[in-house]
Design brief:
heterodimer, A: 79% helix, flat, B: mainly alpha, Four Helix Bundle (Hemerythrin (Met), subunit A), 84% helix
Chain lengths: 86, 198
């Protein structure tokens, strides 16, 4: 039986707060590049929370945890680099 | 008989969530979406002004509402999977119903957004940005509908299959797919609605 160490409702609250915060940062910031970096890093943090706590990747075979987290890193690098270069 | 045991050993570890098949399927889907994002970024670098101006025609609050619907639906799905492991039928039914309802709210919100854009004369052939907008959100929408069909199937089988190992694995697999759909939107939302809009 898999045991959850962190309450899913606590993770949900963090995810909701981060979503609201990233929208506020993107819409309110006067520094566009910093805002872009912030919203994609926040997206990756949220993705990691979902993968580890909701998909329970911490209980899955270790190579899946590594590959899913690598995908998150690749996404952040692509999206930030793509917007900063442009 | 022996071959069945062998198959079970390699595909269905008791202590791991879901089956190795769903982890593989979801990862391949993640890589496919990564390629869509890669091509989006390359086109955005080629046509930055068209993309920035077009992004302003999307409402960030609509994208945010979609994110909040999916995140809350994901939480309900986690609770439904946990309830299934405890053989708690009423809790599993309640959380599956809520996950489905929130998925339907996401779908409704997206359909309203599509109809608004089409009413404004915006379509997949309007410009490069809207080609990606309709393509990426459309593929994601198909995933949402697929996830809801799987959840509906689990909801219908809940009372008859609860307690079996197969049903627990089925719920975990559907949950994994649904959370993946959620993770995709976590990137689609800032990429299309927030970052770089002028």
């Amino acid at each position: 039986m898999l045991k959850s160490q962190t309450k899913p409702s606590a993770i949900w609250l963090i995810l909701m707060a981060l979503s609201l915060f990233s929208t506020f940062v993107a819409e309110g910031s006067k520094h566009a590049l910093y805002a872009i970096g912030a919203v994609f890093i926040i997206a990756a943090v949220k993705g990691d929370l979902v993968i580890i706590h909701y998909m329970e990747a911490r209980h899955a075979a270790p190579h899946w945890r590594f590959m899913y987290r690598s995908w998150l890193v690749a996404m952040v690098v692509l999206l930030i680099a793509g917007h900063v270069i442009g | 008989m022996q071959s069945n045991e062998f198959r079970s050993d390699i595909s269905d570890h008791e202590d791991h969530p879901g089956t190795s098949g769903i982890w593989t399927f979801v990862f391949i889907d993640m890589v496919v979406f990564f390629l869509f994002f890669l091509v989006y970024i390359s086109e955005r670098l080629r046509l930055p002004d068209i993309f920035s101006v077009s992004q302003r025609q999307l409402d960030p609050l609509t994208g945010l509402a979609s994110a909040l619907f999916l995140l809350t639906s994901s939480w309900c799905m986690v609770e439904a999977v946990h309830a299934t492991r405890r053989n708690a039928e009423r809790a599993a039914a309640l959380y599956l119903n809520l996950a489905l309802l929130l998925g339907a709210l996401f779908a409704g919100n997206k359909l309203i957004e599509y109809s608004d854009k089409i009413a404004l004369g915006l379509s997949p052939v309007s410009n490069g940005f809207f080609t990606f907008y309709f393509l990426i959100t459309g593929l994601h929408f198909i995933h949402v509908i697929g996830g809801m069909v799987f959840m509906g199937h689990c909801r219908m089988r809940l009372s008859t299959e609860l307690g079996s190992k197969n049903f627990r694995k089925k719920m975990e697999n559907v949950g994994l797919f649904w959370h993946f759909v959620d993770v995709l939107w976590l990137f689609i939302f800032p990429m299309l609605y927030l970052a770089g809009a002028k």
